[in-house]
Write a structure and sequence with these properties.
Blueprint (H helix, E strand, L loop, with lengths): L3 E3 L14 E4 L2 E4 L17 H18 L7 E8 L5 H11 L6 E6 L9 E8 L1
Helix pairs in contact: 1-2
Length: about 130
């Protein structure tokens, strides 16, 4: 199977020259999702909880466009600008992954695109 890329119409527009996801040989790799409202393409208002919720909703929408859901996620990487907000991010994250948590890495970074506080990328299986 050839590599398939996807960028669903109902997702926020990419903020650079990339696709939202790539699919090959039963694996789906998503680009990092930041908390952009898909309708306005602007950062959602609020703090880390609101931003984490929007990021995971965007990730969920990407997976659904490929006939998958969050239970297909095997690994996530979370990028945060302030690890002091780790517990608040975890609180929201735990509401989205309820059956079996995927493996995860969390990394503090100096900055994220558009002033976001959190970005999450995922690897899922089909």
């Amino acid at each position: 199977m050839l590599k398939k890329t996807f960028s669903p119409e109902n997702s926020p527009k990419a903020v650079g020259p990339y696709n939202h996801g790539t699919r090959k040989d039963g694996l789906v790799f998503t680009a990092g999702q930041i908390p952009l409202d898909p309708e306005t393409n602007l950062l959602v208002p609020g703090g880390i909880k609101e931003q984490t919720q929007r990021v995971l909703q965007n990730l969920q929408g990407l997976l659904e466009s490929e006939g998958l859901n969050l239970s297909h996620v095997m690994k996530t990487t979370v990028f945060m600008t302030d690890l002091a907000e780790f517990a608040a991010m975890n609180e929201v994250y735990a509401r989205f992954f309820v059956d079996a948590y995927p493996a995860r890495s969390t990394i503090q970074v100096a900055a994220l695109p558009m002033g976001a506080k959190v970005e999450i990328e995922a690897i899922a299986h089909t």
